[in-house]
Amino acid sequence: MDARPSSPALPRRERAFILTGLVGVTVLAWGYLLAMAADMEGMTAGMAAPRLAAWSPLDWILMLLMWAVMMVGMMLPGATPTILLFAAVRRKQNARGHDIAPVPAFVAGYLAAWTGFSIAAVILQWGLERLALLTPMMAAAGNAFGGVVLIAAGLYQLSPIKHRCLEHCRSPIEFLSKRWRPGVAGAVGMGLEHGAYCVGCCWVLMALLFVGGVMNLFWVAAIAGFVLVEKVAPRGNIVRRVAALLLIAWGIYTLA
Q1: From CA 165, how far away is CA 84, in angstroms rounded?
Q2: Is the pLDDT reported for residue 102 higher than 50?
Q3: Strand ranges, E, within 136-214
Q4: Which of 8, 86, 192, 204 is the most exposed place for a label (fewest CB within 10 A)?
Q5: Cα–Cα distance between 22 and 144 in angstroms, integer?
Q6: pLDDT recorded at residue 202
Q7: Is 12 exposed, middle or buried (0-12, 13-18, 19+ CB in 10 A)?
């Protein structure tokens, strides 16, 4: 493809079709989380301490499913501009007779990256539970742990790695221009690479779920909203720096 950072047009009908699909998947993900949160709240009612029983294979599967679905609900909206741009470039290349993979292949690669993160999150959650650092609702069991996570998230917001990954997520035109690969494998690979940058941008923010509660859906929605604003707002880097200072201050206050 031409390595030019221009944004090709996408017909309104095709754009609406893709947006409807993305919104539908996101709504389904949040619906699943709502149902799971209600079930967990009922199961943990009256419990005063985290459950320390060994996880069964089913527990591991359910926790992985929970995290994977949560990442779909939280991260797919922020990836929508890149997905729409991929669809527009795909249409342009198809008109030139090139073999271009369907949009779901790119989305599958993107979500595969977050599924990999979900596996790591489940292992971390298991370890924190073993250490009795989480409540039954998977929130920080003490101020020390919560404060450390908040400060770590704030410091990461100011790091060069965060800046580089965020700039990538905020510049999908440049990414697709420079990293375009043909075929289904190429589309999946591009989605996976873009997803890896998004994981690098947001993985510490996802650790904040252990502060407010993994099943506290107001907290989950707040983090998802911030991630979206940080990626698409005109002054996302200013948002990043302000959030860093607030997180560090909050962490210090929590420790104190």
Answers
A1: 20
A2: yes
A3: none
A4: 8
A5: 39
A6: 92
A7: exposed
